[in-house]
Amino acid sequence: MSDITWEEPFCAEGANCFRLGTDSEGNAYIAVAGQEDRPLVDTKEALRALIREIKAGRADHLL
């Protein structure tokens, strides 16, 4: 796995924490904080699209 630069954990309601990361090869990573050795991996553009859709409320039905 490439060297991943992780952002600080984002925690919603104190217990549900995740981290976003990127590498020099153009990949984006999402992991549960503390489980960075098992991330989901996709392109940076795919991560941008996911975040845009969540912000637009298109994933609210999943909650």
Mean pLDDT: 89
Order of helices and strands: EEEEEH
Poorly predicted runs are none
* Total of domains: 1
Helix tally equals 1
Protein name: DUF397 domain-containing protein
What can you tell me about this protein's structure?
The chain has one domain (5-56). It starts with a strand and ends in an 8-residue tail after the last helix. Strands 1, 2, 3, 4 and 5 form a five-stranded antiparallel sheet that branches. A hairpin with a 4-residue loop joins strand 3 (16-22) and strand 4. The protein contains one helix and five strands; from the N terminus they run βββββα. With 63 residues, it is an alpha+beta fold. This is DUF397 domain-containing protein. It comes from Streptomyces thermoviolaceus subsp. thermoviolaceus.
What's this, in brief?
With 63 residues, the protein is of the alpha+beta class. The chain contains 1 helix and 5 strands; from the N terminus they run βββββα. The chain has one domain.
SSE blueprint and pairings:
Elements: E1 5-6, E2 10-12, E3 16-22, E4 27-32, E5 40-43, H1 44-55
Antiparallel strand pairs: 1-3, 2-3, 3-4, 4-5
